[in-house]
Sequence to fold (273 residues):
Amino acid sequence: MDRVLCVLQAYAAQIILDCDRCNEEFLRKFLEAHALYRSVVIATSEGCDQVQIDNVTKTLENYVLTMECRACGNCWWFMSVTNKFPNSSSTFVTTADTSRHLIAPAQDCSGFLLVLSLHQILDGQDPNQITNMSITLDVIQHSDGSTTIYTDDTDYDIDYYNDELIYGVFITHAFTSGYYTIRYKVSGDNIDTIYVDKKIKVDCNCCLNNALKKLHSLECNECDDEYRRNFLKVYALSKAIEFAPHNTNKTMVVRAIKLRDALCNKLCNCKDC
Fold:
């Protein structure tokens, strides 16, 4: 799935850079692959039938082979091989068979799904050798440095070494738009603290939700082609802003957000929502 994620991020970056020129087919490919990817993630977190998940994953992997963009070629070095950890010298044994580190914010900015498995740094540490082990999850907002800390057992069951994150845990957290670091932290009296960080962008847009509700409420013959095309562009821009790599040009991201909001306001007239 690393290769799939790389292609999705490459597409997202290109949509942001070319947001006024991307054709409908390009946007559809991105959204179709994105939908399959999120389906796999959600199905895995819900413990759905693994055979069905594997079938959808294979479909998705085959689909991304048909996707072309300027940076996609950089993604093909990823190899679909079985991971070779955890460390054989550790007493930790996991049931995970796929390496994942995913942070998926909710569309309504009410929280995020955390999935973490077969992580080389964490697997290199034997949990049974840690005295007074403590596990926390820090949500760090970049704009002001504020940090919210969630503790294993007290707030959520997020013990990596009990396989509690293989299928994902939903963390309720009230986001505002901006950049965040989600930091998984393992500490103890006799080890150097282990940090596993992932940076994310969160884009809270009430107008997009209103446009989606409007689209769902319309009968097929009530929704004209122009509305559908504009909604497709708005939705693709929103997902691209969410999915683009953290190092995407910030000026272009701001430009894409402004274009997305302007198009969305035309769809729903919801500047003050």
User: Anything to note?
Assistant: The radius of gyration is 20 Å.
